[in-house]
Amino acid sequence: MTHTTNNATTASNTITAASSPDAAGPNKPFISSITGVAPLLDVREVTMRYPTARRGERAIQALDGVSLMIASGEFVALVGPSGCGKSTLLSLIAGLERPTSGTIALQGDAQARRLGRVGYMPQRDLLLPWRDALGNASAGLEAQGMGRREARRRAQALFTNFGLGGFEHAYPSALSGGMRQRVAFARSALAAGDLLLLDEPFGALDALTRAELQRWLSTVWQRLGITCLLVTHDVDEALLLADRIIVMTPRPGRIRLERAVPLDAQNRPRRPDILTHPQVASLKAELLAALLAPDGGSGETPQ
Amino acid sequence: MNTVNTQANVRDHTTMAYDAAPFAWRARSREAGVRALLNTLPAVALVAALIALWQWYASGAAIDPQILPTPVAVWRALVAQRDLLWGHTLVTLYETLVGFAVALAAGVAFAVVVDASPWLRRAVYPLLVTSQTIPIITLAPLLVLWFGFGLLSKTLVVLLVCFFPITVALADGLRAADPELIKLYRAFGAGPLRIFWSVRLPGALPSLFSGVRIAITYSVYGAIFGEYVGSEAGLGFYMLLKQHAFATAAVMAVIVVTALLSIALFTLVALIERLALPWYYAQGRT
């Protein structure tokens, strides 16, 4: 196993490139174990630069040439320090913003409108306080234009599965943080279509609730057969949940490292003690090293 | 497994509400009634004490009843002229409700329009604020001059008084919508219209109701002031009539009716708010 930081990788590129094809060249996105399968999501060379309001000020570069692919049914975790443009990337994938350059293709189509086709779940549950739990879970479907009755029927079908049975008509203010997050997840999962983007969904929860919801998410993900892209700053969370982990650099966000998690993909939810498994532990060390490595990019480029 | 966790996750008071629902609710509502009574008790006691003090002072030999009638005299005037007062009350109530309804409709429409365009906001907001700096005392006579002694001029005074708080409250409420929430619903594919109807407007309703509560308290005062300036009927007209006749007890009776009318309308709005926004009160707001 190579314990290399980015600096080391670039220094000895010829040696490491064969064994660990991370930090792939900017023009060819790396596909790990999924070569041959048509990617559900194909992000190519995406750069995002935010212009600043004041003249003469430098533009903020959030993302710099990010490429990644996600196959249908995969669970991919995106790990990076705060301010690495993870959330920006999710906004771009969801279709909320347009990249400065590069393309994002969902099911092979880079031109189609992605708003309403991708489930998005932010850290805050953002439940509507005037709707009951069921009404909130069905809100995503209703936003896509589905009738209220049908949307509620579909949400109802998920409730028991999600451990929310009996709380259909409770207002969010009467629910615990963990339950609110489940309702929010149901809302996004129902609206997801194929791809679910999770932006640090458990970041605001206490450690116990978080652990419980991680297990729950793993089970639900497997049962529903959805595709997840999880943004987190927690390496353990990524190791417990994901098939593949992508490490990003601080601003401007680039992809530094990409690794498959060396565990049986079917055996979910993973027990927390897999973190002490030698192979997983060494992967964790590698990921942490990549996360903590100093970066040359300043994040600002002259406009 | 999940169900067990779920139960443990719910806060205690909710679990209670679900477990022992009907019985607990009834007990709690009776408890709430007792508490409400205890809460109003100090105010009632203070008012009773003040009225008693007033009665004692005004019934002293040196006080001219034309200057300060006793509460008992006011009550007698109220009872004696109840039919007349009732008729004038209906006129005032009618002006108030029509003016308020128009103010509500116009205020909501205005807030929505202002909200839709930053340019309109910038153009209209200063005018709106300026309109409120003009004292209604100077405006009311003009309105009577332009629109006559009838209902229209009073309704307009009510409209002018009520319009501003409603517009500002709703416009602010709409503006306060969480940008992240809007972003989320955009990601779900909702258009601006749907976001407005299902996210921003419901979220602004508590704010709108605050404005409406302020407006409804001003509305009766607006109608009465309009009548006071020039009219042929209504509580303001009747009060002026009695004032000129030095029937101070009757004037005070009108004041009592006015206060009761305002309180009744305010209570009605509060009641509607409770029915319309059950979730808002479920959040532990009292």
Which word captures the global form of chain B?
flat
Q: What's the overall geometry of chain A?
A: globular
User: Uncertain runs of chain A with pLDDT below 50, 5 residues or more?
Assistant: 1-35, 296-303
**Largest interface, C-beta closer than 8 angstroms, per-chain residues:** A-B, 40 and 33 residues
Portion of residues within helices of chain B: over 70%
Features:
heterodimer; A: 303 residues; alpha/beta; four-stranded antiparallel beta sheet; 21% strand; disordered C terminus; B: 286 residues; 13 helices; disordered N terminus
Walk me through the topology.
The complex is a heterodimer of chains A (303) and B (286).
Chain A: H1 6-11, H2 13-19, E1 39-50, E2 59-71, E3 75-79, H3 86-94, E4 101-106, E5 118-121, H4 133-137, H5 139-143, H6 148-161, H7 177-191, E6 195-199, H8 207-224, E7 227-232, H9 235-241, E8 244-248, E9 255-260, H10 278-292, E10 300-301
Parallel strand pairs in A: 3-7, 3-8, 5-6, 6-7
Antiparallel strand pairs in A: 1-2, 1-4, 2-10, 8-9
Helix pairs in contact in A: 6-7
Chain B: H1 2-9, H2 12-19, H3 21-58, H4 71-80, H5 82-116, H6 118-133, H7 136-147, H8 151-175, H9 179-187, H10 192-229, H11 235-244, H12 248-276, H13 278-282
Helix pairs in contact in B: 2-3, 4-12, 5-6, 5-8, 5-10, 5-11, 7-8, 7-10, 8-10, 9-10, 10-11, 10-12, 11-12
